[in-house]
From TrEMBL:
Domain of life: Bacteria
Domain Tryptophan synthase beta chain-like PALP: 59-379
Source organism of this protein record: Liquorilactobacillus sucicola DSM 21376 = JCM 15457
InterPro entries per UniProt: Thr_synth_N, Thr_synth_N_sf, Thr_synthase-like, TrpB-like_PALP, TrpB-like_PALP_sf
Entry-linked PANTHER family: THREONINE SYNTHASE-LIKE 1 (PTHR43515:SF1)
Record bears the keyword Transmembrane helix: no
The name this protein goes by in its record: Threonine synthase
CDD domains xref list: Thr-synth_2
């Protein structure tokens, strides 16, 4: 492999992903990568770095749905259909996904009209931003279905997991010619593509002369289901010099407490915040970290997860806790998040989104508290145009709280930040999806959409 800083995103993606997908031929894997990372991204770099104050920002929001989940979900359908072909799978793949706002749209953008697949997305009716909701309800593609759930993200995610584990329903599906799969980060195919941009960020810092070869850097990651930051942990284990992975949470700070106290406790109030993709109390991918810090002990990992299911809480022992030194964890309140957006705008005339602002705030707090001199990269996970109302409020801008589109226009006038094409498209696309159900009816709804009758 030639020097990291010289590789294009695609070339780097090939080198990293071939270590995980060793059963793909070089041509198969390169075809998947070439199809995933092209003109569908607004930046030819795919994941460019910008600088605000002394921190670097890894911009992961230049894909079709302007959030970082595009990076994995533009690739996943290609990987999945290639794997199905290789294995002679005749069934139609049904992607079932619970979304806190960004996954669902990104998954649909990836799977829309992909032959041999269908996708059903459940989102919490009151837990997503108006722009996110409009993005989903205008989704095109004959094989896409979107359903609003009267509940929060955990309700939606818990029921999707139940449907996956429902043996009876799965048997009926098989008979009808379907096979369930997931586009949530419980699918390992979501995680590996995310390892790539940690290496790519390092290469760009080298190229810009911000670091020297071998220097360690920090990443501050706005965290919900722990998928993004876990990919950073994988990158570190693969040899990338990472000093600290900063786990930044919003007011739903269950992870902050876990890292600092060694106790995971989901028995606490759930808050709807300005960073909805991080409004999560049961962080799916943490189980994978537990596996590593337990010394790859599946029995110990399972008993902790069982405890979580039965009591909503578990405590890790000292030996496990001591292995968390790769991480630093803290959180930002709503007020601190807004302040951070305002501060960056005043300094740089740039608007950042609330998720990114949480990570930026926590990174600065970390730097203040520790005086750690390592270069820090804030992982910028969404475009501010996805969350215009909160950003406008934070910037004390005038706006009338009307349609999502008028908010987008107001943010554009205030900041001058270029409008992504996909946001312009929202204005002309018709609303296509209208279903809303109670969490308890999600299973029946799936059967209905697929045209099968559960007993
Ligand atoms: C999903 C998401 C996150 C959280 O990422 P996890 O992998 O779930 O920790 C943060 N920011 C945005 C914009 C997201 O869409």
């Amino acid at each position: 492999m030639s020097a990291l800083e010289k590789l294009s995103y695609r070339e780097l993606a090939y080198h990293i992903l071939q270590t995980f997908f060793s059963d793909f031929s070089e041509k198969e894997l390169r075809d998947c990568i070439d199809n995933a990372y092209g003109s569908n991204f607004a930046s030819p770099k795919i994941a460019p770095i910008t600088y605000h104050a002394k921190n670097a920002y890894l911009e992961l929001f230049h894909g079709p749905t302007i959030a970082f989940k595009d990076i994995a979900l533009q690739l996943l359908p290609h990987l999945m259909t290639a794997a199905a072909r290789k294995n002679g799978l005749q069934k139609e793949i049904v992607i079932l996904t619970a979304t806190s706002g960004d996954t669902g749209k990104a998954a649909m953008a990836g799977f829309a009209d992909v032959p041999g697949t269908r996708i059903i997305v459940f989102y919490p009716k009151d837990g997503v931003s108006p722009v996110q909701e409009r993005q989903m309800l205008t989704q095109q593609g004959k094989n896409t279905s979107v359903v609003g759930v009267a509940g929060n993200f955990d309700d939606a995610q818990t029921n999707v997991k139940k449907i996956f584990n429902d043996t009876e329903l799965n048997e009926e599906l098989e008979q009808a010619g379907f096979r369930f799969s997931s586009a949530n980060s419980i699918n390992i195919g979501r995680l590996f593509p995310q390892v790539v941009y940690y290496f790519y960020a390092y290469g760009q810092l080298l190229k810009a002369g911000k670091i020297k070869k071998g220097d360690s850097i920090n990443f501050s990651v706005p965290t919900g289901n722990f998928g993004n930051i876990l990919a950073g942990y994988f990158a570190k284990r693969m040899g990338l010099p990472i000093n600290k992975l900063i786990c930044a949470s919003n007011r739903n700070n269950v992870l902050t407490d876990f890292f600092n106290e060694g106790v995971y406790d989901k028995n606490r109030p759930f808050y709807v915040t300005s960073s909805p993709s991080m409004d999560i109390l049961v962080s799916s991918n943490l189980e994978r970290l537990l596996f590593y810090i337990s010394g790859e002990d599946p029995v110990k990992t399972k008993s902790l997860m069982d405890e979580l299911t039965s009591t909503g809480k578990y405590r890790i022992d000292d030996s496990m806790h001591s292995k968390l030194a790769d991480f630093y964890a803290a959180y930002a309140t709503e007020e601190q998040t807004g302040q951070e957006i305002a501060e960056i705008f005043t300094a740089d005339q740039t608007a950042i989104d609330p998720h990114t602002a949480v990570a930026a705030y926590v990174a600065k707090e970390y730097q203040k508290n520790t005086a750690d001199p390592h270069q820090t990269v804030v992982v910028a996970t969404a475009s501010p145009y996805k969350f215009p109302q909160f950003v406008l409020t934070a910037l004390h801008a005038e706006y009338s709280s009307g349609s999502p589109l008028s908010l987008v226009d107001a943010l554009h006038s205030k900041t001058g930040t270029p409008l992504p094409q996909t946001i312009k498209d929202l204005a002309v696309l018709p609303l296509k999806h209208h279903r809303e159900v109670a969490p308890a009816l999600m299973k029946t709804t799936v059967a209905e959409i697929l045209g099968i009758k559960p007993e």
